[in-house]
Write a structure and sequence with these properties.
By secondary structure, the protein is α+β, with helices and mostly antiparallel strands. It is built from ten helices and 29 strands. The protein folds into three domains: about 10-180, 3-Layer(aba) Sandwich (Rossmann fold), CATH 3.40.50; about 190-310, no CATH class; about 320-510, no CATH class. The protein has helices at about 10-25, 45-50, 65-75, 85-95, 115-125, 140-155, 165-175, 175-180, 200-205, 255-265, and strands at about 30-35, 55-60, 100-105, 130-135, 155-160, 190, 190-195, 215, 220, 225-230, 235-240, 270, 280-285, 290-295, 305-310, 325-330, 345, 355-360, 370-375, 380-385, 390-395, 400-405, 425-430, 435, 455-460, 470-475, 480, 485-490, 500-510. The strands form six sheets. An eight-stranded antiparallel β-sheet has the order 8-9-10-11-15-14-13-12, covered by helices on one side. This is VWFA domain-containing protein. InterPro entries: VWF_A (IPR002035), vWFA_dom_sf (IPR036465).
Amino acid sequence: MLTSDAPGPRIDAAKTAANSLVDSLPNDSQLALIAYGTGTGTSASEYTAGCRDIRTLVPLATLDKNLVHQAVDSITPRGFTPIAASLTQAATTLPPTGPAAIVLVSDGEDTCGQPPCPVARSLVAQHPDLQISTIGFKTSGEASDQLRCVAAAGGGLFVQAANAAQLQARLLATQNQAAASSAINGGSLRGIAIGNGLQEIRQSHSDFPLGGRRTGNQTIIVWQDCEWVFDATGTLVEIRPQGNARTIDGVRVGGALGEAKHFYGNPVATSSNSDGTRNSTFVAEPDTTTGYRITSQGADDASTITRIVVCGCAPRSSATSSAPASEIIRPFTKSGNTTPGWLKDARHNSGGYYACTINPVPGAAEAGISWCSGSSGMDQGLCAPSFDGHSLLCVTDPFSTTEFIITPSQPPASDPKPPANHIPFGLELADGTRCVYVASRGVAPGNSARPDAVATYNCGDNPLRPTSYVFSDKNSYPVAQSSTGWTAKVGGASGESLRDVAISKVIYVRFG
């Protein structure tokens, strides 16, 4: 949970998701909070103690939201991962009879040697009304298989989350398994996944038809208001839900394409159809070729989703890519105060235009932070409401420790949130150059060698007087990400050729 790829530490994303879940629960809910791996390190001498390091932070009782929030915020992960033992302790916390649920969130597999799947099976045998759900945060391989097995043995829901937005939505989904089971979950629907064979499917779904209509080398079987497409070997290659399909994150037919980008990042492929609609392919599960091919009608992020298809149509992405160092700056608190080490410039704009209209929000790694700017992009940056209730605390340069007090000419949006594939506020290039994201410009600089590219970052010692820019294709992610690292196309506002420069550090903003 200390890995910084959410962006920022995974534990920060997990805390935000857990607190959102707590806020959504009815006030009369019964809840306990248990954490493991918070009291020891990971040295060999601490192994025995670390595998017993399971703490009940909040005993089972009627929900006290403030108390649980404080307990969640106090968690500091640093030890081993005793999943099996923590499940046992969680079960002993619950009443011995009656409906009960355990939700386990982990970013890795058990490191204490006891397989958790048989433990989950035993716990449910002793407590038939117990349900165990698991969430794998950025897990893959053995870790995902282990968590999937625990959920199957516990009669619960298993979901994977690749970013903070997915983690928050999928943690909430564990509270309504009936709705979650009818939603597209990664590469599966109704417990049937891309890559399953027809005979395998019929073993667990006896009413699944044996045959359907042939189209070339494919067979299409209609079942449960959905077309299931098999190749010549009998392997499921596409899932085509009919009607009001939706994903477990809430992306649905009738919704906006921008919601898909919020959860799954920018599409990896796009194409146009003869009827004027457009297909956008998104990665559904990292480190696999499972994707969502989403058809929409209209322009840009506001276009309306008309169809969602699950397919093996995404390029394989690697969870082990060589990403740059990630730094989180925390200039302000949710209560509207500056954090220690930050200076406040009490400069107010005098009735001029200053608004926060961009959503999803670049540069932010947490909901509640807005991107705001004045006319022609003046004083643009990331802002949060001040404690006085009418002004904003704003950071315009991620490499400084100064924030401004600015009075907006109109209230910020009520639900600002970052995109799924968070856009860095600041970049530090391998040659030491510093770059600051710019969302609004009066006159956009161009580069005649790449007239189709747009300047997305100002680079140099002073963001207001840049000596070069980062250029990227319009409506695309501003930097290139690959298994060998991140790079930016850098050049001046002239005809010089753009050069690829490695990125050594990225900076995002969260609340302190």
